[in-house]
From TrEMBL:
A single Gene Ontology CC term: Golgi membrane
GO molecular function: lactosylceramide 1,3-N-acetyl-beta-D-glucosaminyltransferase activity
Protein name, UniProt field: Hexosyltransferase
Enzyme class: transferase
UniProt pathway annotation: Protein modification; protein glycosylation
Organism this protein belongs to: Mola mola (Ocean sunfish)
Gene3D superfamilies: 3.90.550.50
Subcellular location: Golgi apparatus membrane
Methyltransferase among keywords: no
This protein's UniProt keywords: Glycoprotein, Glycosyltransferase, Golgi apparatus, Membrane, Signal-anchor, Transferase, Transmembrane, Transmembrane helix
GO biological process terms held by the UniProt record: protein O-linked glycosylation; sphingolipid biosynthetic process
Cell division recorded as keyword: no
Membrane-related topology note: Single-pass type II membrane protein
Length: 390
């Protein structure tokens, strides 16, 4: 049998050219490939096989710097505070509060705060319509722009006097200070509202279906064991740190050396029980706040205290929930609502919503609708497909 060497050489050249082309593409796209594939493989391997974090080595709290200056949370004084928010209306004793709701807001976002006051954050509605004692406050820093700061601050002081729901400390309200804002929430809750059965942290661009949430929390309290060890929301498991410097969420290895974050809930909206809130408070006293991604810092605190997050399929991640009555009947939170809060509140709390899922046929109809809305390929963190069958 004779071999055509010229043809062999041509095939080898073609293979070499193809291999070279593939290598060139990989070299060009390696950073993106590493972010989306390799880093996630490393992260899941670390999370589920190694699962060893020594946070005390990187996040041990140093009370004072070399000059003896306190760098901790207490260095930020209150500029606006309402310490009697959770005190009884007609007495000096603590009120029985079902839910303390902390909304993270930027100083300039007055319209968002007002929409929340008028809808899902309305304490009077929660009491008169749902029989639930709700306390809602906004967590704020100071405006980041020097030129606008004094004007915005005057407006905030007037707003605080008018509504009695602003809690502000003297730190710049920026992305890299979100962890400081998280610490503010847990410290304020510990100091001024320790009797609340549940604590919720939420962004000012999410929608909370308060009737569904109150029903859920009351069911938890009705259990014989009560509500203990609860940290519930949209859970991120085995997420890798982002090492690309151009990313908003970039975290260098010298700040966080591990290949995986501990499990944590999306910071847009999550709930903890009173005992977990106390544990997170204790963790903030011993861990420094150099991790500026507040969701991850919450995960670090919880991991340190032996608390694990629990998934609830109707807490959304980074995306809006579909607009449909069959969704509203189960919805807890939906993200990305800066302009449509009032219209969504009106639609989601309409009494006719619950009739869509009552009865065998209506229930089947709603399951089919939710399957079409939730089970199509979607890379955004909305509700998972399994939520369609609940």
């Amino acid at each position: 049998m004779f071999m055509n060497f010229r043809r062999v050489h041509k095939l080898q050249c073609l293979q070499l050219l193809t291999t070279g082309l593939v290598l060139c593409v990989l070299m060009i796209c390696w950073e993106e490939l590493d972010h989306h594939v390799v880093s996630h493989m490393r992260s899941y391997t670390y999370r589920y096989l190694v699962n060893s974090y020594d946070f005390n080595s990187s996040f041990g709290h140093n009370q004072k710097d070399s000059e003896g200056v306190d760098n901790g949370f207490e260095s930020y004084p209150y500029l606006i505070n309402h310490p009697n928010k959770c005190v009884g209306r007609h007495s000096q004793s603590w009120d029985d509060v079902l839910l303390l709701l902390f909304v993270k807001s930027s100083p300039e976002n007055f319209q968002r705060r007002q929409a929340i006051r008028d809808t899902w954050g309305n304490e009077t509605y929660a009491w008169s319509e749902l029989g639930a004692s709700l306390r809602m406050v906004f967590a704020l820093g100071v405006h980041r722009d020097d030129g606008q700061r004094s004007t915005v601050q005057r407006a905030l002081l007037q707003e605080g006097q008018a509504y009695g729901d602003l809690i502000q400390q003297d730190f710049l309200d920026t992305f890299h200070n979100l962890t400081t804002k998280l610490i503010l929430q847990f410290h304020w809750a510990h100091e001024y509202c320790p009797q609340a059965h549940f604590f919720m942290s939420a962004d000012d661009d999410i929608f909370v279906h308060i009737p569904n949430l109150v029903k859920y929390l009351q069911q938890l309290l009705s259990r014989k064991s009560g509500a203990k060890d609860l940290w519930v929301g949209h859970v991120h498991r085995g997420s890798p740190p982002i090492r690309r410097k151009e990313s908003k969420y970039y975290v260098p290895e010298d700040l966080y050396p591990w290949s995986s974050y501990p499990d944590y809930t999306a910071g847009a909206g999550y709930i903890v029980s009173a005992d977990v809130a106390a544990k997170i408070y204790q963790a903030t006293l011993v861990l420094n706040s150099s991790m500026y991604i507040d969701d991850v810092f919450m995960g670090i605190c919880a991991k340190t205290m032996g608390v694990s997050p629990q998934e609830h399929v109707y807490f959304s991640g980074e995306a809006k929930a579909p607009y449909h009555p069959c969704i509203y009947s189960h919805m807890i939170t939906s993200h990305g609502h800066a302009a449509d809060v009032r219209s969504l509140w009106k639609a989601a709390t309409d009494p006719s919503v619950h009739y869509h899922s009552r009865g065998f046929l209506n229930n089947l109809y709603c399951i089919a609708i939710r399957v079409m809305l939730l089970c199509r390929p979607n890379y955004e963190s909305m509700y998972p497909c399994k939520a369609a069958f609940i």
